[in-house]
Amino acid sequence: MPTSVSFDRLAHQPAYKVVSEKIRNAIVSGEIAAGDLLPTETDLAEQFGVTRSTVREAIRLLEHGGILGRAGRKRLVVTLPGMEAVGRSVSSAMLMHQVTYEELWQVAMGLEPLAGKLACLSATDEEKQLLADNLALTEQVMDNHDALLKVEIEFHNLVAEATHNNALLLARAPLNELFYPAWGAIIRALSPGERILVAHQHVYDAICAGDQDKAEEWMEKHMRDFRRGIEMGNLGFDQPVQG
Amino acid sequence: MPTSVSFDRLAHQPAYKVVSEKIRNAIVSGEIAAGDLLPTETDLAEQFGVTRSTVREAIRLLEHGGILGRAGRKRLVVTLPGMEAVGRSVSSAMLMHQVTYEELWQVAMGLEPLAGKLACLSATDEEKQLLADNLALTEQVMDNHDALLKVEIEFHNLVAEATHNNALLLARAPLNELFYPAWGAIIRALSPGERILVAHQHVYDAICAGDQDKAEEWMEKHMRDFRRGIEMGNLGFDQPVQG
DNA sequence: GCTGACATATTGTCGGACAATATGTCAATT
DNA sequence: AATTGACATATTGTCCGACAATATGTCAGC
Fold first, then answer.
1. What is the per-residue pLDDT across A86-140, written as a single tens digit (0 to 9) for each?
2. Could you tell me what percent of chain A has a pLDDT over 90?
3. Is the confidence at residue A3, as pLDDT, over 90?
4. Residue pLDDT, tens place only, B185-231
5. Which residue, A66, A203, B120, B226, shows the most beta carbons closer than 10 Å to its own?
6. Which residue's CA shows the smallest distance to C1' of D15?
């Protein structure tokens, strides 16, 4: 029964993808470092033996991931993908997957207490000072909903940064963007300024004291408050997150 | 002292970015659903009043994030960004940020036990069956390094999927890709087949019994083993992860 | 119903073009 | 010496038109 040989579907990758991969590899492998300038589009086109249009498409592919950016608005420069770029791309994926507040909250329950705990080990004096400043500011703006939301988010970012753990920062990047509207709604609905301040204060104390368990515990309490906030405010805990 | 007025730098966004944002909004806002076909490049060019080249660049921008893909290899189709796409983009960011195995492990310690815990609440019978199959397979291939690595990774994915939490799945997507080589090295160096099997077995039992604490605990033990593996194998726990 | 032939639509790639804007140089001015 | 202006140059953003390769659709013929 000579079913004849079976051939693999030959993968004819479009040129712009090949070019994009070549550049990407050179970057990820460290051959080109962050901050380096890339050759001009015309040069790249010549080097790869394709047209400028093709090179441009390849560049766009990388530009979105935050790997490439433009200095000023001219030359191409290799960039470290910032938290914002990663956050944006993952959170848009979460939006499309119709992630609910509950799901998001569960992930936050895994990451935020962890951040508090790790920050106890690695927060520098400057970072503790930044946290102290943030607390002072929180006290001042407690009744201003918008300002309160801003410092609340900032506090969590400061704690996360104090861990000096880039993997953690990248993993929680999308949370920032998505929790933003929810926190805002809670704050407007319940004015929980006092509770927020108390929780932050305890986390801050724990970090200064290097008390991992306490930091973890209070961060957890804080997040449970968030959950109660969504439930009490009737904001639809099982509803998909709104962009 | 008329230092003259200060003006905001006026942001002249390039057309391809504008077009890309327009399409992105239409997708994220649900105006176009996943699975829908987009108009052809020529049509889009006409609608936006730009050239096809510009439209193409805009498309590339979205293509990388996994938002757009090609059906067959022709028409553009709106796609749900899969775990792979998200994983790839975040993990390349982690690589560039020189994330160490320790940092990565800390994140995994936040997410994997959580996955075990949540899976207890939501695993369906089919999913339990898949886990059982995976265990059986693990037993068979315990001495085959490559095969063992594959089922090990698959086990964790199955547990994560059993949580039915898309946010969690997306958050841990990069871990998959980055742990892969490390697990492989550990397995080759230490042949920890027995320990892996025991831990998986306990997690599986806990999930079947709905015992959240036990699932969390054993997943944690399992991850601590992973850490010990890297340390014992002298694989450089504080070294940047290798792509 | 399957096959093949043919027209059509769509993408991938090319080449060339031009305006707007940065960058670099150098002389003139203060 | 530092600033300004004039000018050439380089680079990007956008446009146009073109063509080959490949899917898709249609229709006759067996």
1. 998 899 899 889 999 999 999 999 999 999 999 999 999 999 999 999 999 999 9
2. 57
3. no
4. 888 888 778 889 999 999 999 999 999 999 999 999 999 998 988 88
5. A203
6. B51
Which residues does chain A have within 8 Å of residue B95's beta carbon, measured at their own beta carbons?
A: 28
Taking the CA of residue B149 as centre, how many other CA atoms within 13 Å lie in the half-sphere pointing to its CB? 16
Q: What is the pLDDT of residue A1?
A: 39
State the number of CA atoms in the 13 A half-sphere of A68 facing the CB. Answer: 26
Q: State the best of A60, A120, A163, A212 to mutate against chain B, taking most chain B CBs within 10 Å.
A: A60
Cα distances from A198 to residues A62, A202, A219, in angstroms, run 44, 6, 11
Point out which residues pair with B77 in neighbouring strands: B37, B69
The CA distance from A165 to the nearest CA of chain B, in Å, is 6
Angle subtended at Cα B141 by Cα B137 and Cα B143, rounded to the nearest 5 degrees: 155
Alpha-carbon separation of residue A158 from A116, A149, A176, B106 (angstroms): 10, 14, 12, 18
Per CB-CB distance under 8 Å, the chain A contacts of B243 are 28-29
For residue B17, the distance in angstroms to the closest alpha carbon of chain A comes to 10
Whole-angstrom Cα distance, residue A147 to residue A152?
9
- B141, B135 in Cβ contact below 8 A? no
Chain A 67..96 CB hits on strand D (< 7 A): 70, 73-76
Protein B7 CA to nucleic acid D4 C1', in Å?
22
- Domains of chain A in start order, with CATH, are 15-78 (1.10.10.10), 84-232 (1.20.120.530)
Those nucleotides of strand C lying less than 7 Å from any protein Cβ are 9-17, 21-23
Please give the structure tokens belonging to residue A118: 């790790």
Which segments of chain B does DSSP mark as H helices, in order? 15-28, 41-48, 52-64, 83-96, 101-122, 125-140, 145-162, 166-190, 193-209, 212-232
Between the CA of A228 and the C1' of C8, what is the distance in angstroms? 60
- The pLDDT of residue B3 is 38
pLDDT at residue B128, rounded to an integer: 97
